[in-house]
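User: Sequence in, structure out. Go.
Assistant: Echoing your sequence, followed by the structure tokens.
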Amino acid sequence: GKGVTQTWWFQIVDPGAFLAVDVFLWLGGFLVAYSLLRRLDKVRRVSSFALSIPLIYIDRYLRLLPALLVVLGFYWAILPNIGSGPMWPYVQSTTE
């Protein structure tokens, strides 16, 4: 039989996936660099900017923390009650 990589749907989806990941990473790097350059322009001194780098990480952490908590809450509280399918016993055994 054919392997998964030889099926028609894999041939369509696979090249697009690599391009999507590359574009996502490029845009993310561009936006981080743009944000840092805007902050550097506001500060106007490199020494003050260097001192604000830990604040940038703290700000990023506080912005991402609520989304992380929602995902973890879903994983721990809701997912075990709505699952089914052939791999469901494996999912249950890994979450308990």
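User: And one key feature?
Assistant: The radius of gyration is 22 Å.
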